[in-house]
Amino acid sequence: TATVNCWADGWEEDYVYFYHASVQEADSSNNWNFIEKIPCPGAGLQTLTTSYTLPKGSEHVVRISIRYVDSNDFTSNSGSCGIGSFDDNDDVAFTVVTATLSPNITQTLGPKAATTPEPSTTSPSSSASTATATPTPNPSSLSTSTSPSLTSSSSLQPTVVSSLSPSMSRKPTSTPSLPPSASLSPTSAPSNTPSASGTILSPTKSPFVLFTYGESLYRNNDLDIQISVGLTATQIAQSGSSVSYANGGQSSRSYHGMMDGAGIAQLPDGGYAYLSNAEKSSGNGGVYGLYFNKDGEIIDYKALLTGTSRNCGGGMSPWNTWISCEEVGSGQCWQVEPDPNKPNHNSPKPTLLGGPSGGAYETVAVDNTNENKPIFFTTEDKSNGELRRFEADGNGWDALHVGGQTTYLQFLSGNRFHWTSNIEDGKSSAWNHYPNAEGIIYHNSTIYFVAKVTRTLFILDLNDMTYTSERTGSSWVGQGAFNSQPDQIIESDLDKRKYIYFTEDGGNAPGVHVRDREGNYYTMVRGVPGGRYSGDETVGIAFSPDRRKFYFGFQDAGVLMEVTRDDGHAFN
Fold first, then answer.
1. The pairing of beta strand 231-238 with beta strand 559-565
2. What pLDDT is recorded for position 69?
3. Are 523 and 479 spatial neighbours (Cβ–Cβ below 8 Å)?
4. Are 409 and 458 in contact (CB under 8 A)?
5. Which of 7, 207, 380, 476 could in theory staple to 139 by disulfide, Cβ–Cβ 3.0 to 4.6 A?
6. Is 0.85 surpassed by the pTM of this model?
């Protein structure tokens, strides 16, 4: 009996094939006997099992292959897994020894394993390696286990494999998503009748588990998402419907539509508020607060700013207020006080960040190194939208409404930049280098911001006044893909891995993606390719103050979700 763990795209043509041969046949003639073909029952991580009685003999080899084609001919590369033209086969092969404890000579997968790196050119070797061979990390490849003897996998070298749709590509991870385990006690002989079953694996709760985003994605059919194994998502709000409270009650107001940028404000009682923009036009936009108690349970929902238009992104101030930016011709950046006990709670006010003429503003980041003169950086989503730098004259609510100096980002030759007082120089630089700037964050004397239409991440070193840039998603690891436009970004000083989180605008599977400090990109969660959220936009990314909950939404669908680790720990 062979049990195979494999990743399937969910296409009708995904099949797992089983073959066998004697060691002599495999070594000399590459002659394989077909056992069975099992169609993958759906997308995501699958467990497929078949049983077969092998011919009598001292040693055999079993080969298992996953291919994107309905054909038993493994020597043909047509339709096999890979990228582009699908020009490689992904398979593993194992030597099989006689189960000596049975009176019948029943062949089972034994404690010796051999591999073949390419089915059309190289045969499995009879020289055995130990049962602790590392599984191949390819998401479209296979790890296998036996049902009387052990779980083992090939040491097949990683290759670039197909993504969840044939047109995408991804790079394999460095570690397997399912670790091998072993049991050396034989069981009863397998049946002569082949059988198969398939299920989608779900993560389970456990003590602290270190995992990598996107190493393996599983499908949540109820939410129509694919999410990293080790995480669980729950829908907590739906546009147009009342919000359910922890005490069994409901909000009198329906959850707002066209939600967009969001932030988290911690409150004095240990609770927090999820502050969410509404990107509606013609004075129907605003900011809304979803209030949680200290246990992370929803207790209230209310409007905090109304009468504005196309509130897109924003940012938190050092004094725990939310700055909401209008992305409209003469829009402004509004300061909103989420704490009901503060004097400005019911008095949102436009700030000086957008200047007297306003603009189509997007996101705000702040450098609070000098608490007496915090510096705010504001992006504008226009082809010539200058990046603005506002140095406040003080700290606290009034600092954004009185005084301050504004300059603009200008790129120079040799990957240098400076801040100019000439707004036209800033506009020209945006037109030539960073059109339609969106998300922006500040961390440790460094600014990170994205230009949406060119799908570029800019990294500005404020110490030596130089910059670098890269295409978002260019260095990919694991499953998923980041092929559409980057939008909002967030990070946290509490994050030990210095991850930057990105939302995605458009594409057939918009998601939330992550960049590590080495510049590698991963998928945390995304819509099922071609599913309910195709063409939508992920929005509203934010962490709870204790980083045990992560929030994100799909704008057009109006769905807000809460993500937690299955082991119950904080996102580090």
1. antiparallel
2. 60
3. yes
4. no
5. 7
6. no
Residues in contact with 304: Cβ distance below 8 Å, sequence separation at least 6, in sequence order: 275, 286, 287, 288, 289, 322, 336, 337, 338, 348
Q: How far apart are CA 381 and CA 437, in angstroms?
A: 5
Q: What is the 3-state secondary structure (H, E, C) of 458-488?
A: EEEECCCCEEEEEECCCCECCCCCCCCEEEE
554: which 2 tokens? Answer: 């799909």
Please classify residue 450 by burial: count the beta carbons closer than 10 Å to its beta carbon, then call 0-12 exposed, 13-18 middle and 19+ buried. Answer: buried
Question: What is the DSSP secondary structure assignment for residue 397, as one 8-state letter?
Answer: G
Residue 45, strand partner residues: 7
Which ranges of 104-233 would DSSP assign to H, the alpha helix? none
User: 265 is written with which tokens?
Assistant: 């404000």
Integer Cα distance of 519 and 514 in angstroms: 10
- Residue 508 CA to residue 265 CA, distance in Å, equals 33
Least Cα distance to 153 among 74, 219, 220, 91 occurs for 91
Backbone angles phi, psi at 5, to 5 degrees: -100, 120
Cβ-contact 287, 324 below 8 angstroms: yes
Ranges of residues in the chain with a pLDDT under 50 are: 11, 77-88, 99-206
Beta bridge partners of 109: 96
Q: Check: CB of residue 21 under 8 Å from CB of residue 75.
A: no
Instruction: Report yes or no: 170 and 160 within 8 Å, Cβ to Cβ.
Output: yes
- Which residue carries 């509130």 as its tokens? 311
Q: Under a CB-based contact definition with an 8 Å cutoff, are residues 93 and 62 in contact?
A: yes
Rounded distance between C-alpha atoms, residue 320 and residue 264, angstroms? 9
Tens of pLDDT along 216-259?
999 999 999 999 999 999 999 999 999 999 999 999 999 999 99
Beta bridge partners of 64: 18, 92
Question: Do β-strands 359-367 and 375-380 pair in parallel, antiparallel, or remain unpaired?
Answer: antiparallel
Among residues 342, 354, 356, the alpha carbon closest in space to that of 387 is found at 354
Look at residue 493 in the predicted model and tell me its pLDDT: 66
**What are 478-497's pLDDT values in tens digits?**
999 999 999 999 997 656 66
Mapped onto helix, strand or coil, the DSSP state of residue 24 is helix
> Which residues, 6 or more positions from 527, have their beta carbon under 8 angstroms from its beta carbon?
224, 225, 226, 509, 510, 511, 533, 534, 536, 554
CB atoms within 10 A of CB 144: 24
Which amino acid appears at position 413 of this protein?
S
- Which residue type is seen at 551? Y
Residue-by-residue DSSP string for 232-252: EEEEEEETTSEEEPTTS-EEE
b (16+ CB within 10 A) / e for 386-395:
bbbbbbbeeb
Give the Cα separation of 413 and 418 in Å (integer): 11
Strands 311-316, 322-331: pairing kind: antiparallel
pLDDT of residue 197: 35
How far apart CA 491 and CA 547 sit, in angstroms, is: 11
Question: Tokens 């909103």 label which residue?
Answer: 336
> CB–CB of 107/96 below 8 Å?
yes
CA-to-CA distance for 326 and 280, rounded, in angstroms?
A: 10
Closest residue by Cα to residue 524 from 512, 533, 536: 512
